[in-house]
Design a protein that fits this description.
By secondary structure, the chain is α/β, with parallel strands linked by helices. The protein is built from 6 helices and 5 strands. Strand 3, helix 3 and strand 4 form a beta-alpha-beta unit. The termini are far apart.
């Protein structure tokens, strides 16, 4: 799974890379505008770990921008920050973040939260597939009902009477 890490602090960015690189295909950036561009790319990352405070754009601004566009609205966003007050957490979630993690984060917790995000992304994809299949089934049903409506009533009755004995 493709994951973007947007973190302006080089040491912390390297730590995040080391903790996640064995399991995920990582892209890293140092600032908000570059993160946004990478996330908007065709076949770009589907999960983003955004630092709140970054040059150019904050992680929350990137998150709001992602949510404002249909193409990027489904990207799973984890805000990772040292800000840990209830008001900050609420602000991050109101900006559209799917999860909020405070620094310093333990490696095991970070991996678990990213894996949770991946599961949610996979479930969304499965749900989208099922909705598509239901739409196809509904279209077929409508087509059959339209065709059935074209058959004269007498023919329908006779066919039903003939079909009933074979069903029993």
């Amino acid at each position: 799974m493709k994951v973007l890490i947007a973190e302006d602090e080089p040491v912390f960015r390297k730590i995040l890379q080391q903790r996640l690189s064995p399991e995920f295909e990582l892209t890293t950036t140092e600032d908000g505008p570059t993160a946004l561009v990478r996330l908007q790319e065709e076949n770009g990352p589907v999960l983003a770990i955004l630092d709140w405070v970054m040059p150019g754009m904050t992680g929350l601004e990137v998150c709001r921008e992602l949510r404002a566009h249909r193409k990027t609205a489904g990207i799973y966003v984890i805000v990772l920050t040292a800000r840990n007050s209830a008001a900050d957490i609420a602000a991050g979630l109101r900006a559209g973040a799917d999860d909020y993690v405070t620094k310093p984060v333990q490696a095991e917790e970070l991996r678990a939260r990213v894996q949770l995000g991946c599961r949610i992304i996979e479930l969304r994809a499965a749900l989208k597939t099922e909705v598509g299949a239901l739409a196809v089934a509904l279209a077929r049903e409508k087509l059959l009902l339209n065709r059935l409506a074209l058959i004269p009533a007498r023919t329908k009755r006779r066919e039903l009477e003939e079909a009933i004995p074979s069903m029993v």
